[in-house]
Amino acid sequence: MSVAHIAEPSPLPFDRNSGLSVENGSLSVTKPCGERIILHPLWLRERLPDARVMDTLTGQRLIEAADLPLNLAITSISHDHIVRFSDGFETHLSANWIDNLLSPAPITERVLWDGAQTLPTAYNFTEIATHHTHNALHNPPLRAFLDQMHTHGFAIVRGVPTDKDGALEFATMIGPIRRTNWGGLADVKAIANAYDLTMTPRHLEPHSDNPYREPVPGYILLHCLINDAEGGDSTLVDGYRAAQHLREKDAEAFETLTTTVVQFRYRDATALLENKAPLISLDEKENIIQVRYSNRTELIDRLPPEHLNRYYRARQMLWHLIRPQSSLTLRFKLSPGDLLMMDNYRLYHGRSGYTLSTGSRHMRQCYMDRDTVASKRDILHRIHS
Ligand SMILES: [Fe+2]
C-alpha cells in the first residue's frame, strides 16, 4: 500500500490559501475547478503525516485507529495549515501532502485485443539480466515487459537459457514463484500415464489454469525448451475482450456467468483441490477482473433446471467466443528459449495437438502470485519516477 505521508511536488488541486475550511467537524477542500471534497475527521486522523500517528520509516500506522473517539471532530484549520481536533491533537498538513492525498493513482489502460493482434515485441533476456545484475531496482526493459503484461495480459522474453531451470533465472528477477503440490517449476510434456491432460500430446482447449486452487495462480510462466514436433502451436484469447463482447451482445448471458457460482475440482492420488467461483468475476464497480474456464475440471451444482438452462446457454455463448476457431484467438509457435508469461486472471490459453513421431515438445512452467508481480512493477516505476 502506498504511504500518503511521503510528499512529492506536483500541481496543487486546491487553493493553498483559501481551499481549506472546517465544515461540520470535517475538513472541506475546494479545488480550483470548484469541486469540493469533504474529508471525514477519522479518515483524516488515522492517516496523518505525523510521527505520532504513522511510523516515518515503514509508513505503517502506530495508533489503534479503532480506538479513536467516534465523535472526533476537526475544530479548526489555520491559514498555515495547522489542523486541530476536538481531542486536542494538532498537526501540520503540508499542501503537497493534501495534493497527494486527493490525486488518484495514474491508471494504465488495458488494451483489449483479438486474433488480429500482432504479436507484441519480444523482450531480450540478456538485456534484462544485465540490468538486473547492475541494479535490481533499475531495469527499464523488465519494467516495459511488466507494463506489457499489464496492458495486454501477456509478454514474451527471448533467449532464456534452455537448461532445465532456465525459467527460474528470469522468474527470480521478478520475485518468488508460487509452489504447488506439483512443485515449483514443472515439466509440460507428454509422458506415460499422465496425471493431467496437459501431459499428453492432445490439443488443449482454451482454459485458465487451476481454477480449483485458492487463490487461483495469478500468472503463468511457460518456458519453451524444445518445440520441433508437428503442431503444438500456442493459442491465446483475451478473456476480458470475450467477456466484454458478451456483456454488449447478450446481457442476460453475461449476468448469468457473473452470478452463477460453479465448482472446479482436481483430484489425484495425493491431492483434492476444490474452489467455487463464477466464470466471470466483477469488482464492486462492475469491472471485469477475472475470467475462468476449465472444461476439464468444472462441475456445476445441481441447480434448478431453469437456472441450468440459462447457465448452459450462457456458457455455450462464451465458448463460441473463445474456441480455437474464434476470431478472438491469437495463434503462434514458441521457439526454444522463449518464455511466455500470461495473466491467468485475464487470458484463456491452449495449444494445438502435436505429433510425437515428428519431434518433441518440452515446456517448463511455473506460477507467480499477483501481488509479487504488481509489487515488482510498482517498484520499477517508483525508482524511475
Ligand atoms: Fe494451462
TrEMBL record:
GO terms for molecular function: dioxygenase activity. Residues 140-367 form the TauD/TfdA-like domain. The keyword Oxidoreductase applies. It comes from the Bacteria. The keyword Oxidoreductase applies. Its cofactor is Fe(2+); L-ascorbate. Keywords: Dioxygenase, Oxidoreductase. InterPro entries: AlphaKG_dependent_hydroxylases (IPR050411), TauD-like_sf (IPR042098), TauD/TfdA-like (IPR003819). This is Gamma-butyrobetaine,2-oxoglutarate dioxygenase.
